[in-house]
Design brief:
By secondary structure, the chain is mainly β. The protein has two domains: 1-161, 3 Solenoid (UDP N-Acetylglucosamine Acyltransferase, domain 1), CATH 2.160.10.10; 163-197, no CATH class. The protein has no helices and 26 strands. The protein has strands spanning 4-5, 10-11, 16-17, 22-23, 28-29, 34-35, 40-41, 46-47, 52-53, 58-59, 64-65, 70-71, 76-77, 82-83, 109-111, 116-117, 122-123, 127-129, 134-135, 140-141, 149-152, 157-161, 170-171, 177-178, 185-189, 192-195. The strands form four sheets. The chain has a nine-stranded mixed β-sheet with strand order 1-4-7-10-13-16-19-21-22, with no helix packed on it. It has a seven-stranded parallel β-sheet with strand order 2-5-8-11-14-17-20, with no helix packed on it. The chain has a six-stranded parallel β-sheet with strand order 3-6-9-12-15-18, with no helix packed on it. The mean pLDDT is 96.
Length: 197
């Protein structure tokens, strides 16, 4: 199965697209980007130079993923979400000269396996979104998000835990966390969540 690229999309010839990748209307994939098998890049989405995406990632419409972001397998990035890459953004140098690409060091956002970033969320690099974590719509992430954490707000703060199904976990009588959809159990120790008991 080959990649499907809409005629209006702009995919650099040096980008690597895995089997079953779909790049939709007006999307842009820059040079050196690597998209694993089954990835979907929605309408108007942007994938920066050298961004690496694992298998089965979804970038929804108008998501902006700037280099050097790294997305593991199964990452979801909601509509109009933004991954930044500059700690000290300026258009010009202190003496008024236009800044060039070599005038700054890009820093990236890292998303671990299964992580989800909601619509219009902003992840301010450098941050890591943990495995199966969920960032609520409109959140502004300025620090790392633990595995399975549910974060919301500006700045984003942890408000609970989610399981692999993306459903908020509930506390069981024995102190474990349980997914109401799948029944999967999780154990919390010192502010981290582990699968199983």
């Amino acid at each position: 199965m080959s990649a499907r690229v809409h005629a209006s999309a702009d995919v650099d010839e040096t980008a690597v697209l895995g089997d079953g990748v779909a790049v939709w209307h007006l999307a842009q994939v820059r040079g050196g980007a690597v998209l694993g098998d089954g990835c979907i890049v929605g309408r108007g989405a942007y994938v920066g130079t050298g961004v690496r995406m694992g298998r089965h990632c979804k970038l929804q419409n108008y998501a902006l993923v700037y280099e050097p972001a790294e997305l593991a397998d199964g990452v979801f990035v909601g509509p109009a979400a933004v991954f930044t890459n500059d700690l000290h953004p300026r258009s010009i140098t202190p003496d008024g000269q236009l800044k060039r690409g070599d005038d700054w060091d890009a820093v990236g956002v890292t998303c671990r396996e299964g992580a989800s970033v909601g619509a219009r969320a902003v992840c301010v690099a450098p941050v890591t979104i943990g495995r199966w974590a969920m960032v609520a719509a409109g959140a502004v992430v300025v620090r790392d998000v633990p595995d399975f954490a549910l974060v919301a707000g500006t700045p984003a703060r942890q408000i609970g835990w989610v399981g692999r199904a993306g459903v908020r976990l509930e506390r069981a009588d024995d102190g474990a966390w349980v997914c109401p959809e799948t029944g999967a159990r999780y154990t919390e120790t010192d502010g981290t969540l582990q699968e199983g008991q």
